[in-house]
Amino acid sequence: MSGDADSPPDAPLSSCPRCDRPVATVTVVGPGEAVAAPCGCRVAPGTITASRLE
Question: What's this model's pTM, rounded to 2 decimal places?
């Protein structure tokens, strides 16, 4: 997730896998569902991580 303790504070944001917009936060809303913000796309938990940064 963007903003992890392992990511430097000035690291670029990860991209949403559904709409390709920058993602600032991911909120887990259930065991297999999360919401990316600010785009609002529903994604699987763990889909957006610091490793997605290019």
Answer: 0.68
